[in-house]
Design brief:
globular, 285 residues, binds NADPH dihydro-nicotinamide-adenine-dinucleotide phosphate
Length: 285
């Protein structure tokens, strides 16, 4: 029988992208499952995205991840979008289905899976999201599509925050509300789930925390952070100290990577291997 020397290709396009750890996590999962796939971390400048997407077709790549600055611009090069990606208006994962490029957004789905793994459901819940950028949009829309009752978007920039709240209000069954973030924000008492979807606390600024009144966090709340480097953020430490159940950003990162793995390979992902690989990469074990 002829030996196959060709690997299937996936990867990530971004700029900057050098410090993106996704490849290590995906390749550990491919190795674990005995799949001959390679994950390439590729620097693609903003103006080169069209040519890079042509290369996905020309090389017969199984798919790619998109990161800064391509998540919105990539829509122009796709044949089909998932419902969530269409509402969010951004794609982080492309799947090449026999030459047709399908766009999905797994950031919010990964977040929901990570919460569910900790026994937290968003259905019928009142949720407060700090931030209104790409991560907040993905999380807000997926929580709404998964049956959240009300989502309050808290953001400094009024236009960005109002746009997300309106998107939730008009395109999903959840209520979408906006509150402008001025000074120290007090978490409404009836909040079930509080999410930091800003970049506050991200390495190297690990001693920073979002400007909220931490004494308004109740012990019954679930509190989650998208920041994964370092995962034990000041925000989560403060919430944990007040008895809240906390979920860090590593779970979201691993779970969205697992969803991408399955979209590309059709094989169930070894999530524990992916999580452990990330922890090692961040020096956590
Ligand atoms: P964006 O640049 O799109 O959005 C950043 C958001 O943070 C904006 O809403 C911005 O507010 C807000 N913000 C920034 N600084 C402050 C501050 N000092 N006080 C209050 N709000 C602030 O970034 P992304 O949404 O793409 O990423 C956000 C975070 O999510 C990053 O840390 C990223 O690493 C993380 N992430 C984690 C993932 C995971 O799997 N765990 C996946 C994707 C992202 P304003 O609009 O007012 O400027």
């Amino acid at each position: 029988m002829a030996k196959n020397y060709r690997s299937e290709l996936v990867g990530v396009f971004g700029c900057p992208v050098d410090e993106n750890p996704t490849g290590v996590m995906e390749e550990a999962a491919f190795a674990k499952m005995g799949l001959d796939y390679r994950y390439l971390t590729i620097k693609v400048e903003k103006e080169d995205l069209g040519r890079a997407m042509n290369a996905v077709r020309a090389f017969g790549m199984k798919g790619v991840n998109l990161t800064i600055p391509h998540k919105v611009n990539v829509l122009a090069y796709l044949d089909e979008l998932s419902e969530a990606a269409e509402i969010i208006g951004a794609v982080n994962t492309v799947v090449n289905r026999n030459g047709k490029l399908f766009g999905e957004n797994t950031d919010g789905k990964g977040f929901l899976t990570a919460l569910k793994k900790e026994g937290i459901e968003v259905r019928k819940k009142k949720i407060v999201i700090l931030g209104a950028g790409g991560a907040a949009r993905a999380i807000g829309v997926e929580c709404a599509l998964d049956g959240a009752f009300k989502i309050t978007v808290v953001n400094r920039n009024e236009d960005r925050g109002m746009e997300l709240a309106e998107l939730i209000e008009t395109r999903t069954n959840a209520a979408g509300r906006f509150e402008k973030w001025e000074g120290s924000y007090s978490i409404p008492e009836d909040t079930d789930i509080l999410i930091n979807a800003t970049c506050v606390g991200l390495y190297p600024n690990i001693s920073d925390k979002p400007n909220i009144n931490y004494d308004t966090i109740r012990s019954g709340m679930a509190v989650s952070d998208v920041v994964f480097n370092d995962p034990n953020t000041r925000f989560l430490q403060e919430a944990g100290r007040r008895g809240a159940k906390t979920v860090n950003g590593l779970g979201m990162l691993a779970q969205q990577g697992a969803l991408n793995f399955t979209l590309w390979t059709g094989v169930c992902a070894p999530v524990e291997v992916m999580e452990d690989t990330l922890k090692k990469e961040f020096g956590l074990c």
